[in-house]
Design a protein that fits this description.
This protein is mostly beta strands and 297 residues long. The protein has strands spanning 2-4, 9-13, 19-23, 29-34, 46-50, 53-58, 73-78, 80-83, 89-94, 99-103, 109-113, 120-125, 127-128, 131-132, 138-143, 148-153, 157-162, 168-173, 178-183, 187-192, 197-202, 207-212, 217-223, 228-233, 238-242, 248-253, 265-269, 272-277, 292-296.
């Protein structure tokens, strides 16, 4: 166990598996994530934190009953984080140069952030049926890398806008409340906020096909490295990789905490995974803690 002076929390590594948990000093679990470590039969291991990296030790010798012949191993895991400008980040996207985050509190906004410092490069009001007035409910974002954003609104509308927030090119209606959104360069993948249904359309909204993912998605993005979709869960910290047809490839524990609002987002940038959460602990009072975007290698 180690005390993290930056967050004033504790990091604990499990004796029985590879789980690493961040908890408050009063014992409240904040998040858990998988490490590279494999628990040895002796239950030994250790953890330290230097800057944004966790260092995790394991007993690497496979035979606990004979004299050890394999030296121990120390793994490192980068856990970066950015603070969002607002309190309720509800969607993430990257255009390959910067990061976009949708804000779902007050007058809804879309912020353009520097992907490593979190500095706000530009902010504008999110679209609605009456224009860029912040009166919509943007749940997720996707970027085409050529100056345009897709905005999936909970009201059951997808907007295609420029990434400066001055022009709506088109919009189309959905047969459900808009949930998560991903764009693979040709097709849009749009999830139903209330089920595991994913509808696939072209960018004009013409129906191509649909499938059941079996996942309640808070956020979704296309991973060009694998050609698959990455989905962040609405109800827990799980991140799932699925094929474009909805077949589950793998699931793993992410760093984020699921909020009672079901908000969250995921994006790929420069080989790293960005995952957002609502960090304010009290959903029933005015928010006081900014949202968080975690950066995973």
């Amino acid at each position: 166990m180690v005390y993290d002076a930056a967050s004033r929390n504790l990091w604990v590594i499990s004796q029985f598996d590879g789980t690493v948990t961040e908890m408050s000093t009063s014992g409240v679990v904040l998040r858990s994530l998988e490490s590279s470590r494999t628990a040895g039969p002796q239950g030994m291991g250790g953890i330290a934190k230097v800057g944004s990296k966790l260092y995790i030790a394991e007993v690497s010798d496979p035979d606990p009953f004979n004299a050890p012949e394999v030296r121990g191993t120390v793994f490192s895991k980068e856990i970066g984080a950015l603070r969002t400008p607002g309190f309720q980040p509800s969607g993430l996207a990257s255009d390959g140069k910067t990061l976009f985050v949708a804000e779902n509190s007050g007058f809804r906004k879309i912020h353009r952030l520097h992907p490593t410092t979190g500095a706000v490069l530009k902010s504008f009001l999110a679209p609605s049926p009456t224009g860029f007035d912040g009166r919509g409910n943007p749940n997720d974002l996707a970027a085409d890398g050529a100056g345009r954003l897709f905005v999936c609104d909970m009201a059951g509308v997808v907007y295609e806008i420029n990434d400066t927030g001055t022009k709506i090119f088109r919009s189309f209606a959905l047969p459900f409340r808009g949930g998560a959104l991903a764009f693979d360069g040709t097709l849009l993948y749009i999830s139903d906020l209330d089920s595991g249904l994913v509808q696939v359309t072209d960018r004009e909204g013409r129906f191509v096909r649909s499938f059941q993912s079996g996942l309640r998605a808070a956020g979704m993005c296309f991973d060009p490295a694998s050609g698959n979709l990455l989905v962040v869960s609405m109800s827990d910290s799980t991140i799932s990789e699925i094929t474009p047809e909805g077949v589950l490839v793998r699931s793993f524990r992410g760093p984020q905490r699921a909020s009672v609002q079901g908000l969250g987002g995921i994006a790929r940038f420069n080989g790293k995974l960005y995952v957002s959460e609502v960090s304010d602990p009290d959903p029933f009072s005015a928010p006081e803690v900014a949202g968080t975007v975690y950066i995973l290698p």
